[in-house]
Design brief:
Elements: E1 20-24, H1 27-30, H2 43-48, H3 66-80, E2 84-88, H4 91-94, H5 104-119, E3 123-129, H6 135-139, H7 146-163, E4 169-174, H8 176-186, H9 196-220, E5 225-232, E6 235-237, H10 242-257, H11 260-263, H12 270-276, H13 287-291, E7 297-302, E8 306-308, H14 334-347, E9 352-356, H15 372-390, E10 395-401, E11 420-422, E12 429-431, H16 433-444, H17 450-454
Parallel strand pairs: 1-2, 1-10, 2-3, 3-4, 4-5, 5-7, 6-8, 7-9, 9-10
Antiparallel strand pairs: 11-12
Helix pairs in contact: 3-5, 7-9, 8-9, 10-12, 14-15, 15-16
This protein binds D-gluconic acid (GCO).
D-gluconic acid is lined by residues 26, 29, 174-175, 178, 231, 301, 356, 401, 408, 417.
């Protein structure tokens, strides 16, 4: 690991004392130990073991083996000086059938992780659902069935009761949009279904489940804060043609407002619902009120913007020539300022966290810890977040995605987001330059100048 850059406060880029500096991961992406200690099967186990679904046939069977190496990983976080860590709970590890009998060994694992974090003064931010639905619940119909939301409520109660004496922040869901859109409409994520109506039902049931989850957290962990993590992508029209303007406006409703509006009491966006031809059959009396119950924070995941072209106009590549990550996502830091300001326009004084921001880049052939591009990406996005704070956004913390290179869903291990490099043959971890950069930011609460960070 390189020496930390010199201290040198730059007042206008300083973050307030007490700002939360963390890194994020998700259970299926790092834990491995997929069949150990009574863990049940999840939809991602089934999906990744289905030929043709995940690049190179990769699975999360071993992943980063965090299940066995969590102590080493937490030591790494402590060395980096992080004061927070965002993790998720594997539902099938604690409830192998999705409902009913809890698995003590699975609960013990999360107890040990939380205790280890706290012993290092690292504040755990727990996400209950990061996409790994127990397979038996999918076999009973999955998220298009309302019963799945009730099962989630029981899972939330179990975890809140078990960990709520030590965990101060629970998020119910990570990115419900991806669950419904990629899991049930596009089929590119587990469970791989391509059923537009089921996707709309899923979206509503995820919000019903969120409401039940918040109720469970309030009841079982009254001292904890409850929130949700949503993903955002500014939808910019490709031209000033009225069809492009309309397409971008509808996409904004369907992507950026679909979950945020209901949880802030604004209901589902009308134009987006009409464009989808949604009949709202799943919405029962009392749902919208329950979904709008007060929460304590919103987590914002931001990666890039989307330049929207109407399908009725000749296609073009409107952002050709722009800077992109290895995933092909545009590097667009201003979009983080725009996103935070948009979210705050709905949430007002509610604390916000950037719960994910980061980038995939190819591994340097000579030195896998050399990731100048990621350092530059993080620096520019931090500056964009700071700008939003200058403009009044109550941002309380920032989690980089991700602590470790890990299982990147349908892309397998091809794309790497870690501030720590993982050798997937030996499972050895090595802190990248971006990890050194992040450690300096966490230590000083200041974005170091470009010159310092390179020294
Ligand atoms: C998401 C998920 C992460 C991903 C990350 C990179 O935002 O899609 O929360 O699990 O790995 O975003 O794609």
């Amino acid at each position: 690991m390189e020496a930390l850059p010199e201290r040198g406060p730059v007042p206008e880029r300083q973050f307030p004392p007490g700002f939360v500096w963390g890194a994020a991961t998700a259970a299926y992406q790092i834990e491995g130990a997929a069949r150990e200690d009574g863990r049940g099967e999840s939809i991602w186990d089934r999906f990744s073991h289905t030929p043709g679904r995940v690049r190179n046939g990769d699975t999360g069977d071993v992943a980063c083996d965090h299940y066995h190496r969590y102590r080493e990983d937490i030591e790494l976080m402590a060395d980096l000086g992080l004061n927070a860590y965002r993790l998720s709970i594997a539902w099938p590890r604690v409830l192998p059938d999705g409902i009913g009998r809890p698995n003590e060994a699975g609960l013990d694992f999360y107890d040990r992780v939380i205790d280890e974090l706290l012993s290092r003064d690292i504040d755990p931010f727990v996400t209950l659902y990061h996409w790994d639905l127990p397979q038996p619940l999918e076999e009973a119909g999955g998220w298009p069935e309302r019963a799945t939301a009730h099962a989630f409520g029981e899972f939330a109660a179990l975890i809140a009761a078990r960990l709520g004496d030590r965990v101060r922040h629970f998020a119910t869901f990570n990115e419900p949009h991806i669950v419904s859109d990629h899991g049930y409409r596009l089929g590119s994520h587990a469970p791989g279904r391509t059923e537009p109506d089921a996707a709309l039902a899923t979206a509503h049931h995820l919000l019903v489940a969120h409401a039940l989850g918040v109720q469970a957290i309030r009841a079982e962990a009254p001292h904890a804060e409850a929130g949700i993590v949503l993903n955002f992508e500014p939808k910019h029209p490709a031209s000033s043609h009225p069809l492009d303007l309309e397409a971008a406006a509808v996409a904004h409703e369907q992507f950026n407002r679909w979950y945020l509006d209901p949880i802030t009491g604004h209901g589902y966006p009308e134009d987006g619902a009409r464009a989808w031809g949604w009949r709202r059959d799943e919405v029962l009396e009392g749902d919208m009120e329950a979904i709008a119950a007060p929460i304590d924070f919103v987590g914002v995941n931001y990666y890039c913007r989307d330049v929207v072209r109407s399908p009725l106009l000749p296609s073009l590549d409107p952002s050709a020539g722009t800077e992109r990550t290895a995933m092909g996502w545009e590097v667009y830091p201003e979009g983080l300022t725009e996103t935070l300001e948009f979210v705050a326009s709905r949430t007002g004084a509610l604390p916000l966290y950037v719960t994910e921001s980061g980038a995939a880049y190819a591994v340097d052939d000579i030195d896998p810890t050399d990731d100048t591009e990621r350092v530059s990406f993080l620096r520019r996005h931090l500056e964009a977040a700071r700008t939003a704070m200058d403009n009044g956004v109550p941002l309380r913390g920032y989690f980089v995605w991700s602590l470790l290179d890990n299982f990147e869903w349908a892309h397998g291990y091809e794309y790497r987001f870690g501030i720590v490099h993982v050798d997937f043959d030996t499972l050895e971890r090595r802190v990248r330059d971006s990890g050194v950069f992040w450690a300096a930011v966490a230590r000083d609460g200041v974005i170091p100048s470009a010159v310092q960070a390179q020294s």
